Amino acid sequence: MARILRICGYLVSDRNTTSKDLESYMGAMRGEWWQQLHIEQSEDFDLDGEDKPNCDLALLTRHFKADNISTEFDRPIPQKGEKYRHFKLGKIVTIIGISRHTETEGISVVYEYEGHIWNRPLEMFMSEVDHEKYPEVTQKYRFEQVNPVEEPAQREVAKALEKAQEVQPQTAGAEKLPDTQENSELEPVESIELEELPQEGGVNPYLLLFLDAESYTEKLNVLSLCKDKLDDSVINAMAASMEIEVPDGPIEKRYASLRDCIRTHVRYEGTRLR
Predict the structure, then answer these.
(1) Same-domain check for residues 231 and 131
(2) Would you give the distance in Å from CA 2 to the centre of its chain?
(3) Number of domains the chain is built from
(4) Residue 262: how many CB atoms within 10 A of its CB?
(5) Is 260 found in the same domain as 211?
(6) 216-250 pLDDT per residue, tens
C-alpha cells in the first residue's frame, strides 16, 4: 500500500540553506519518491517577521513577485478571444485573458473550455511539447493557436449554404431522392459567389469548408461555390476524404467527375453522411 502527501508551504532559513541542499535532503529519504518537485529560491534578505509562527502569507510571497510579463517567447502572447488547441486533448480552448496573481504577481493564461474556466502559468502555456515523453505528438507547442481562417470560412459557407437551401428546398435534409427525371439532374447552386478567403499555413480554406460539410448536398454546394478556386491537390484531397478516386486530366473534367460522384451519393445513399 502507498499514499501521497501533497506539500505546499515555505521554508524560511537563516543557515544559508539553498534549493540544492533541500533537494539533496529530500532525495536522501528512502522508500519515498518526490514527483513533479519544483523549488524556488528567493534573494537574500533581512528577516522582518518571516520567522514568526504562522506569519502573514504576504510576508513570504513578496519575495517571489514577478516584475513583468515575460516577452522572451518566439510567438505572441495569447489575446482575449483567440482560440488554441491543446496538444494532448486536441480540444479547442477560448482565451479569456491574462491574469496576475495578487500575492506573487505570477502571470497566468485564463481560458474557457466546455463551460469551465481554467488558468495555467504563462510559461507552461507557451512551452513546447516534450517530444521525448510524447514522441507520437507532431504539434510543436503545448497550446497552438487555431488557424484564424477556419472560423471566418465556416461562417461564410454557412451563409452560402443557407441561401442554397432556400433555392433547393426539396433536396435539403432528404434521406433518399426518388430516381425520377426531375431529380436525375440535381444541380448545385451556381449563382452564389463565395467571398475570396485567405490561405494561411498552406491549408486551402475551401478544402476546410468541404471537409466540414455535414451532408452530401452541402458538399455538392460547396464544390460548386468554389469551382473556380480548385486545383489538382484540392480535388485529390476532397476525393480522398470520400474514399473515391478521380482520374487524372484537365481540371474541368476532374471537377465534373468529383461532382458526379457526389451526385450519386445524394441520389442513392441519401444526403446525410455515413
Answers:
(1) no
(2) 37
(3) 3
(4) 26
(5) yes
(6) 888 888 888 888 878 888 888 888 888 888 899 99
